[in-house]
Structure prediction request, 347 residues.
Amino acid sequence: MKELIDNLYATQQLEPTEFKALIEGRTPELAEYLFDKANQIKTKHYSNDIYIRGLIEFTNYCKNDCYYCGIRKSNTNAQRYRLTEEEILNCCETGYALGFRTFVLQGGEDLYFSDDKLVHIIASIKKQYSDCAITLSIGERSYESYLAFYNAGAERYLLRHETADEEHYKKLHPQNLTLSNRKACLFDLKQIGFQIGCGFMVGSPFQTVDNLVEDLVFIKELQPHMVGIGPFIPHHETPFANEAGGSLELTLFMLGLIRLMVPEVLLPSTTALGTIDPLGREQGILAGANVVMPNLSPISVRNKYMLYDNKICTGDEAAECRFCMQKRMENIGYQVVVSRGDHFSLQ
Ligand code: 5AD
Ligand code: FES
Prediction:
């Protein structure tokens, strides 16, 4: 098994059957070996730097009904909110003072935020903070919309593919959502010139090892700049309320594999990891991740952006999260840097 990891380290690729053998045959010793290699390659490109992104959850309205997600439209118990442009700019002001140079605007698929409104928001942020990068994470829109956002100054886009397997996709989403459209969006975004991020949940209901292998193959094909992965965590007001959550151990192993397969990728250690284990985010970094995304949303709406149960940091001010994260990273020998944190190829 170690030879497979050596081979992946040397060539950045493996056969699907080899990925499957690695995932199925993983042991704590093999994981240690993987993480060691993953960190070698990460340090080569990014040294001990950890990039931070300020996450602004600006709307929890969503027209979609994904079976796993706590802000799905059928969850009538969710208290819905939208931030105004002014509130979003206030988040950026706070964030800038705290050393954030990337703002991630994340929201449900909320058509109240028309292209025009979003273009205005993007342009306003860019005007005031020209040294900052704007990342959008607002789901599926048309090519024309994406192009308008890009021309307004957004340069990165996160759109998790959720699963690269057609059948599995149908088990996680209602019929009107398709994997083919999801993938088409990712290719559109890439073609327009966005730095793109895809990703998936580890341990989502019905996921098989073959599905995880398909995710890896898709990532290799897409060659994204970022990959967001985290464990599935059930939300009590969804159809998956009683399903098992994903494990820390498997999520870490997947992070290690992705680092070796796409050595320069920007890989966040996610809030979901920190939610299933108090030291989950630290362990994610030690498995190969190099990005953290502390929350910049106003405290008044924090506990309303609940994609899954028990989400951490819902009561903490932006500054608390920022410095908490810095300490956490320093404790494991890393440093949070004040920079846009661009992909290695763009530095
Ligand atoms: N558990 C973990 N992650 C979730 N997401 C949505 N719902 C859950 C959940 N219950 C993830 C999805 C989405 C991202 C914003 O959050 O992968 O793309
Ligand atoms: Fe939010 Fe630690 S990162 S409190």
About this structure: The first helix runs from residue 2 to 11. Residues 2-341 form a domain with the TIM Barrel fold (CATH 3.20.20.70). The pocket of FE2/S2 (inorganic) cluster (ligand 2) is lined by residues 294, 313, 316, 320-321, 324-325 (CB under 6 Å). The longest strand covers residues 195-202.
